[in-house]
């Protein structure tokens, strides 16, 4: 086999078939301005919306608290050890979780202090001594009133805060439950999108390489049509000249044919005119003699026939037999136009036969270039390790999705139950406040109720709320700590490390994520420099550069988010030289020499055969310009007879009716008929004379231009054939150059499309940033944030339970039933009245507040008791 052509050798045909910018002639190319490359489908992604809304301040407060609890950076060592299933460093883990240990101690302290403090307060509430009424209580009524109002106001505020905390706890607990399943779905979907998108990169690269078939098909078509293009260019370039020549030829042929036909008609019409002239002349002479004989009758009145004579002598028309003999034969002129047209339009076929060998050689080079392009594309960096890592994540999410969903349901049920208990406590406080609070402002508001039932109810509700707080506080604080531990670690390990970029740094340390890139790079370097033993320094430098190249997940994420291609954000240019791969000069070398072999030779091409040329020359020498057309036209314009025979025939009919002509009446009528017959011959002569006049006029017209038309035709033929032979090499070279430049544009358009498609279609990683943002939104914003807000709200309630219990006990202690109203007009027996008054006095002493009327009544009762005591 001969030496293989260079990579770009096929593109010479491409350029030679698609045109040059400086084209004098139009290249009849079927290629369009825009090639219909395949539109690559990009990954469709949608953003998961955060449902924080008005709860974002609560979420932010929880984040601030968690940042203060666990301000430590991302524990890369601990996570790496845990992933490797090795034994954890407990002291290191304890140091990292020190904030949560402090929270645990606080929770334990809460568990111990809350029951103890509550028990002490309850014991003091139920076993305190009763306060006896004395005269000094009246002076401290005002100070107790303001103190109790302040306590009641604090209790109202604490109850409102507890109610708000419970409502928020219910809300965020419901948010966690609602978002858990969709969050897991979004995580799995995002992982699947990332895996499918990364997997499709190789397939899309293959599809892009397959799109090379489009410019290849164009190049092949243009190469196969090169002969037709050259021939069509020749035709389009000389079509006007050839058409003008054929028009001139058709004019000359029309003149020749018209001359030949007119000469034939001339001879026929001349013969008819001369024959009819003899008949007409004899008939008129006989008519004249007979009419003159009838006029010899003395009594007869006959018209004068002296004017019945012929005028035009058609025997003076010359013969043109010699001109007809000099005319070229019709066979030499027939089909000359069609023959010239066919000869001219047969040029593309001759071009096809002469260009075919060059096209076959260029087609072979084109196939070799395509194979080389495909082999180079196989060296594109592989993302197999990254795909495997994402696939493992997706599998893990899918495996743990159902257990996580189940445990979240359990958490939701437990949380809902404890929130319901907290809500019951708050409701008890609210109802107790609603019943007992009016007493502080209007002490007599319940005086009409017997046995102070509403006050007893309020006290009972306070005590029930306090007891429920004591009983369930340990469950509350335990749930708070559990949720705080898991939600807080989820925030600090995942969400916060994501936003601070620490998680990206941890992923960068996992060498297996981008290991396939390095493998491809090493294999590529090995293939480029197989004799590494001969150049160890170069190989060491290459390996050091390869080791320095390590893609950064943070740079990839932020690059994709800003619209940067994955090719640049992953530094693939260090592994694959895209510019060299898409360098058009690689596919343009070595074609000029082959292109110069394309040539077309049209020697022997004749638009007018020799017999046609000789026929035109014979027609030019026929001598029709020697005929005296002026005398003939004057002769043909002369009247046939002097007298109108129709008028003379009518005159004969009138004379036959005259009585004086009775004897010759029949003769006159007979002569009138004869005259009419002769008149028909006159009309025929007039028609033939007019026809002859037209023929002579046509010959006269042709005779003035036929020699010039023949000379113009032969001159046009000579110039067209000479220009065709002289300009043919320039036309072939110019069309080839024009086609070559169009081919180069088509290849550059394809390579530009390949570059754009690889960088901004195949390696467009906007979907990666959106998918990772969706994971963050679905997990952190929609699940972890509400989960942390839940323990914050529940811890809020636990914190405010302490003042709520204190204020409830104090209020219940101060809220005692008032004494029954005693009228001063009521009659009580002395021995009974004293006991009753003592009971009322004790009740009044135990009451917090009394009206002035009640104080006055108590004073009267006390004076009455003292007076009775003195009498006894």
TrEMBL record:
Q: Which residues form the signal peptide?
A: 1-23
Q: Indicate yes or no for the key word Transmembrane helix.
A: yes
- List the GO molecular function terms: ATP binding; cholesterol binding
What domain of life does the native source organism fall in? Eukaryota
Assigned GO CC terms: apical plasma membrane; cell surface; cilium; microvillus membrane; prominosome
Instruction: Write down the membrane topology.
Output: Multi-pass membrane protein
Primary localization: membrane
Q: Which residues cross the membrane?
A: 98-123, 149-172, 412-441, 461-487, 789-810
The ranges of region (Disordered) come to 524-546
Q: Does the keyword ATP-binding apply?
A: no
Location in or out of the cell: Cell projection, Microvillus membrane
Cite the InterPro entries for this sequence.
ABC1_TM_sf (IPR036640), Prominin (IPR008795)
Q: Which UniProt keywords are present, listed alphabetically?
A: Glycoprotein, Membrane, Signal, Transmembrane, Transmembrane helix
> What family is it from?
Belongs to the prominin family.
Protein's UniProt name: Prominin-2-like
């Amino acid at each position: 086999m001969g030496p293989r052509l260079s990579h770009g050798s096929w593109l010479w045909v491409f350029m030679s078939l698609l045109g040059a910018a400086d084209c004098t002639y139009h290249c009849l190319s079927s290629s369009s301005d825009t090639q219909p490359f395949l539109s690559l489908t990009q990954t469709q992604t949608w953003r998961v919306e955060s449902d924080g809304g008005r709860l974002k301040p609560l979420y932010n407060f929880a984040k601030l608290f968690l940042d203060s609890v666990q301000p430590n950076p991302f524990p890369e060592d601990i996570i790496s050890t845990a992933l490797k299933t090795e034994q954890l460093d407990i002291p290191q883990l304890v140091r990292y979780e020190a904030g949560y240990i402090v929270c645990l101690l606080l929770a334990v302290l809460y568990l111990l202090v809350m029951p103890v403090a509550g028990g002490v307060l309850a014991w003091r509430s139920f076993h305190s001594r009763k306060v006896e009424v004395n005269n000094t209580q009246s002076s401290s009524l005002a100070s107790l009133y303001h103190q109790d109002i302040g306590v009641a106001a604090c209790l109202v505020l604490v109850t409102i805060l507890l109610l708000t905390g419970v409502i928020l706890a219910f809300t965020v607990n419901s948010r966690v439950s609602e978002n858990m399943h969709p969050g897991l779905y979004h995580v799995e979907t995002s992982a699947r999108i990332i895996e499918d998108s990364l997997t499709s990169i190789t397939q899309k690269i293959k599809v892009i390489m397959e799109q090379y078939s489009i410019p290849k098909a164009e190049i092949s078509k243009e190469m196969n049509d090169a002969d037709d293009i050259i021939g069509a260019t020749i035709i389009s370039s000389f079509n006007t000249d050839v058409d003008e020549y054929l028009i001139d030829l058709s004019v000359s042929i029309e003149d020749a044919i018209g001359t030949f036909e007119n000469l034939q008609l001339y001879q026929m019409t001349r013969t008819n005119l001369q024959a009819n002239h003899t008949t007409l002349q004899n008939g008129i002479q006989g008519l004249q003699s007979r009419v003159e004989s009838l006029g010899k009758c003395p009594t007869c009145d006959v018209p004068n026939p002296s004017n019945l004579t012929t005028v035009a002598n058609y025997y003076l028309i010359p013969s043109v037999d010699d001109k007809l003999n000099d005319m070229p034969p019709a066979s030499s002129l027939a089909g000359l136009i069609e023959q010239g047209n066919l000869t001219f339009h047969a040029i593309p076929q001759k071009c096809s036969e002469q260009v075919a060998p060059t096209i076959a050689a260029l087609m072979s080079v084109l196939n070799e270039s395509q194979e080389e392009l495909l082999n180079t594309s196989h060296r594109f960096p592989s993302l197999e390790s990254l795909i495997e890592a994402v696939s493992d994540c997706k599998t893990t999410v899918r495996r743990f999705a159902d257990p996580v969903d189940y445990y979240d349901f359990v958490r939701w049920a437990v949380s809902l139950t404890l929130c319901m208990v907290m809500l019951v406590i708050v409701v008890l406080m609210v109802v107790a406040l609603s019943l007992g609070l009016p007493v502080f402002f209007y002490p007599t508001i319940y005086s009409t109720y017997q046995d102070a039932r509403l006050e007893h109810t309020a006290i009972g509700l306070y005590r029930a709320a306090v007891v429920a707080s004591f009983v369930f506080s340990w469950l509350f604080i335990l749930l708070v700590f559990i949720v705080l531990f898991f939600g807080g670690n989820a925030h600090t390990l995942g969400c916060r490390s994501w936003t601070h970029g620490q998680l990206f740094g941890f992923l960068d340390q996992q060498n297996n994520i981008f290991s396939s890139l390095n493998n491809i790079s090493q294999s590529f370097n090995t293939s480029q420099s197989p004799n590494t033993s001969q150049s160890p320094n170069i190989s060491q430098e290459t390996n050091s550069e390869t080791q320095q190249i390590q893609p950064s997940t943070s740079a990839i994420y932020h690059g994709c988010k800003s619209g940067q291609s994955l090719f640049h954000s992953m530094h693939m240019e260090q592994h694959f030289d895209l510019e060299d791969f898409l360098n058009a000069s690689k596919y343009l070398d070595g074609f000029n020499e082959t292109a110069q072999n394309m040539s077309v030779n049209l020697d022997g091409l004749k638009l007018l055969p020799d017999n046609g040329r000789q026929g035109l020359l014979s027609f030019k020498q026929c001598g029709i310009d020697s005929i005296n057309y002026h005398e003939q036209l004057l002769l043909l314009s002369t009247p046939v007879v002097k007298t109108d025979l129709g008028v003379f025939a009518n005159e004969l009919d009138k004379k036959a009716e005259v009585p004086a002509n009775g004897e010759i009446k029949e003769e006159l009528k007979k002569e009138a008929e004869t005259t009419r017959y002769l008149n028909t011959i006159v009309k025929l002569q007039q028609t033939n004379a007019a026809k002859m006049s037209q023929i002579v006029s046509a010959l006269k017209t042709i005779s003035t231009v036929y020699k010039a038309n023949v000379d113009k035709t032969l001159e046009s033929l000579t110039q067209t054939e000479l220009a065709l032979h002289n300009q043919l090499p320039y036309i072939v070279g110019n069309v080839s150059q024009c086609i070559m430049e169009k081919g180069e544009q088509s290849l550059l358009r394809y390579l530009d499309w390949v570059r754009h498609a690889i960088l901004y279609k195949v390696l467009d990683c906007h979907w990666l940033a959106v998918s990772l943002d969706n994971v963050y939104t679905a997990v952190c914003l929609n699940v972890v944030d509400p989960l942390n807000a839940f323990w914050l709200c529940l811890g809020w309630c636990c914190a405010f339970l302490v003042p709520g219990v204190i204020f409830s006990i104090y209020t219940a202690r101060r809220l005692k039933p008032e004494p029954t109203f005693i009228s001063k007009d009521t009659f009580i027996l002395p021995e009974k009245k004293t006991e009753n008054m003592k009971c009322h006095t004790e009740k009044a002493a135990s009451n917090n507040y009394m009206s002035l009327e009640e104080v006055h009544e108590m004073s009267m009762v006390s004076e009455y008791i003292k007076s009775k005591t003195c009498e006894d």
